[in-house]
Write a structure and sequence with these properties.
Blueprint: H1 8-19, H2 25-29, H3 32-52, H4 55-78, H5 84-97, H6 100-103, H7 111-127, H8 155-168, H9 176-194, H10 199-219, H11 224-248, H12 258-267
């Protein structure tokens, strides 16, 4: 006879036991704040598993991520704020509410219409109004189309998401060429600032350039965050090859001239 397969309720009960009398001393000491770094870490490890295309790794990392959800829900339950059941119920209700084209009578013409309705419903939820879907993603009266974006997102991702939100209400360049022109303009301003002695001005112009590049990625249909991660991975692989070549020649990189470093870099491509 097969053993019963553990369920989400078993996870909740296990978490409660770990936090309860006679449970794990480490688990009993944790707070929402102390667990914060682990939540971020597990989210990134899950993304890494997705990129690796490894189902077993993804299954394990999703479990670790779910543990963080259960842990925070248990802390909230102990404080009398909400329970894991409340989290699940709220999520199911939200999914139904924000998909009126599936659970209601709203018609959509494709994925773009779904996003427009989703943002319109979110805006009305923030305003405390009935979540009826309309063909507008404007923020609530007195609010902003940027409301709800977490400030803790990675900066590049935050920049792109902010500009996506702004574009949905018409605040956008006509096309990619204008977005490219803006990048060129910001690069010129950065070059001018970099030649001066004002570091604050240079930092501001660098930020403007990065923000413009993040905006350009949207016109190219590219995820800027992922594009930069791919570039980092490519740099890592190539740099490691440079190190190995220099090591094999018996010369540390610190002893190489700029010309020699450039030759090593080109050879490592």
């Amino acid at each position: 006879m097969n053993a019963r397969r553990p369920t989400f309720d078993d996870l909740v009960a296990t978490m409660a036991r770990l936090r309860g009398p006679g449970g794990c001393p480490w688990d009993r000491e944790q707070t929402h704040q102390s667990l914060r770094p682990y939540l971020v870490e597990e989210a990134y490890e899950t993304v890494e598993a997705i990129d690796a295309g490894n189902p077993d790794q993804l299954r394990a990392e999703l479990g670790d991520l779910l543990l963080q959800v259960a842990f925070h829900a248990q802390l909230a339950a102990e404080a009398g704020a909400f329970t894991a059941g409340d989290v699940v119920a709220g999520l199911v209700e939200k999914l139904i509410r924000r998909h009126p084209h599936v659970f209601g009578d709203v018609r959509v013409g494709g994925a773009d219409d779904v996003l427009v309705n989703w943002e319109a419903i979110k805006a009305r939820e923030r305003a405390g109004e009935p979540a009826r879907a309309e063909g507008s993603a404007d923020g609530e009266p007195g609010g902003s189309a940027l409301d709800g974006l977490p400030h803790t997102l990675p900066a590049l991702m935050l920049a792109q998401r902010m500009q996506e939100r702004a574009a949905r209400v018409g605040f956008t360049w006509p096309g990619a060429e204008e977005a490219l022109d803006k990048v060129r303009e910001e690069l010129g301003e950065l070059e001018t600032a970099a030649r001066g002695a004002d570091r604050d001005r240079a930092a501001e112009e660098l930020g403007d350039l990065l923000f413009s590049v993040a905006n350009l990625s949207r016109y190219l249909g590219v995820d800027g965050e992922q594009a930069l991660r791919d570039a980092c991975a490519k740099f890592r692989e190539q740099f490691v090859r440079v190190e190995r070549t220099a090591r094999a020649a018996g010369r540390p990189l610190t002893d190489c001239t700029p010309a020699e470093l450039l030759a090593l870099w080109r050879a490592a491509r």
